[in-house]
Amino acid sequence: MSKISKFFKGRSSAASKGRGGPSPQEALARLRETEEMLSKKQEYLETRIERELAAARQHGTKNKRAALQALKRKKRYEKQLSQIDGTLSTIEFQREALENSHTNTEVLKNMGYAAQAMKKVHANMDLNKIDDLMQDITEQQDVAQEISDAISNRAGFGDEFDE
Questions:
Q1: Is 5 exposed, middle or buried (0-12, 13-18, 19+ CB in 10 A)?
Q2: CA nearest to 96, candidates 8, 41, 27
Q3: Which ranges of the sequence are coiled-coil (predicted)?
Q4: Per-residue model confidence as pLDDT tens digits over 73-110
Q5: How far is CA 88 from the centre of its chain?
Q6: How far apart (Å, rounded) are the C-alpha atoms in residues 98 and 23?
Q7: What is d(CA 76, CA 60) in angstroms, rounded to the nearest whole number?
Q8: Could you give the CA distance from residue 23 to residue 107 in angstroms, rounded to a whole number?
Q9: What whole-number distance in Å separates Cα of residue 162 and Cα of residue 52?
């Protein structure tokens, strides 16, 4: 077994083994740690590039060999920096996708809770009883309207005379 695989196997937690994989929070934490580590490496490489450029300028035409070596190292550091940029982009994309997946899972879980609550609320309701109740309400509204119409109509006291 290689040292690298031993290193990565040693980092897996006992809690992760029992569940068949890390939780979204654990994975997000590790991705953020990796992003942080790569950002630090970027800063380090940027300072190294500046140093090599300064060394190349210092040697200039006096010591061409040392100046060329400094420029070659600078180019190597720039290549590493470019690779880190690509890796960071990939990690950021993966982190965002994981965050979105975790959010979607939470939303779906909460929608399930809401559906269960609605079932519980509707468990005591009978559609036939509701229909009967609505008919009773409609009948009572009709009666109330008839009473209102009867009260609001002018009484014909003295309007009509029977000869």
A1: exposed
A2: 27
A3: none
A4: 999 999 999 999 999 999 999 999 999 999 999 999 99
A5: 19
A6: 11
A7: 19
A8: 17
A9: 123
Is residue 4 in some structural domain? no
Report the number of distinct structural domains present in the chain.
1
What element of type H or E holds 127? Answer: helix 127-152
Write out the H or E segment, with its range, that includes residue 53. Answer: helix 24-59
User: Helix, strand, coil proportions of the chain in percent (round to 5)?
Assistant: 85, 0, 15
Burial class, 78, CB count within 10 angstroms (exposed 0-12 / middle 13-18 / buried 19+): middle
Is 78:49 a contact under the CB 8 Å cutoff? yes
Q: Is residue 157 part of a domain?
A: no
pLDDT tens by residue, 30-65: 999 999 999 999 999 999 999 999 999 998 888 999
- Residue 15 is assigned to a structural domain of this protein: no
Q: Residue 123 sits in which domain range?
A: 24-149
| CATH code, domain carrying 126 | 1.10.287.1060
